[in-house]
Structure formats: C-alpha cells, structure tokens
Specification:
This protein has 167 residues and is mainly α. The chain is built from six helices and two strands. It has a two-stranded antiparallel ribbon. The radius of gyration is 18 Å and the shape is elongated.
C-alpha cells in the first residue's frame, strides 16, 4: 500500500481521486433520482450506511489514519452537511406505500455538497497527505449519511404508524 503513495505522483492521485469522486457523485444522483419512483422500505434506508461502513477497513493501513482532532472536524462537518439533507428529505403516502417526495432542490444540494467536498479536497491536498485526506473525507461522508438516514428511519416509522402501513 505504501508504494501507491510513494511511487505515484501526488498530482495523479489527486486527479484520479477527483475523477472518481465526480463519477461516484453522478452515480449517487442517478440512483437517488430513480429511487423516488419506488416505495421506501426500512432496508433501503438502513443498507447504504451499512455498505458504506465497510470503507472503515481503509484505516487498517497507516496511510489512511487520521489524527483525533481531524476525526472530530470531519464528523462535525459531515453532521452539518447532513442537516441540509435532513431538511430537504421528506416522505409522502401514495397508493398504500411510502415514497420519498421529489425535491428539485435535492439534486442541486447533492451537487453543491459534491462541489464543496471537491474544492475542500483540492485545497487541503497541499497540506494533508492524500491517504489521510481520503480517510478524512470518508469520515465526513459517513458522518453525513448516518444522521440523515437515522432521521429518515424515524420519519418513515412515524408515517408508517400514522397511516397504518405494515413495515
């Protein structure tokens, strides 16, 4: 693993990770847009953070480890970003099922968050090692998705009980 960070030029790592982030962000937008056409289930709310949690295995390698202060910073920023997602996510009851309400702002918010993360990565890459930065941005993303999904689950359960929908 160490060879990746010493043999590949820093600029290539930044460019490669930026292109990958843009690809993943675009993929997330497509998946979220299509998801609005299907009923929401508890499984669909819980699984994304569980799948994402496997990324924590990166911290096995010392190149990705983040100092405690930066962990706290990344978690706080992630939670602040989650507030935007929480505010723009809501459900509606249709055809005896629960669906996410379409929000025109949601796409722009996801794009905005992606752009902010990319700019932050480009700025911070001059002062923080690329592996450590990758760890910080994973923590930020996880700190964003977990609170958002917890609130989604609470709202989903509340609406399910109100409408008498079996979960």
């Amino acid at each position: 693993m160490e060879d990746i960070f010493t043999k590949i030029p820093h600029t290539y790592l930044i460019i490669g990770s930026t292109v990958l982030a843009l690809f993943m962000g675009t993929l997330a937008l497509i998946v979220r847009s299509k998801a609005a056409n299907r009923p929401v289930t508890i499984k669909k709310i819980i699984l994304p953070p569980l799948f994402m949690s496997t990324g924590a295995f990166m911290f096995i390698f010392k190149e990705f480890r983040v100092p405690p202060v930066q962990i706290l910073e990344a978690v706080v920023v992630g939670m602040l970003f989650s507030l935007i997602l929480i505010k723009t996510t809501s459900f509606e009851f249709r055809n005896d099922d629960i669906f996410m309400k379409r929000s025109k702002a949601f796409v722009f918010i996801l794009l905005g968050l992606l752009i902010i993360r990319l700019i932050g990565k480009l700025v911070l890459s001059s002062t923080i090692d690329i592996g450590e930065l990758g760890g910080m941005f994973w923590i930020l993303a996880f700190g964003m998705i977990v609170p958002w999904r917890v609130v989604m689950l609470l709202r989903f359960n509340k609406l399910s009980k109100e409408k008498g929908v079996r979960i």
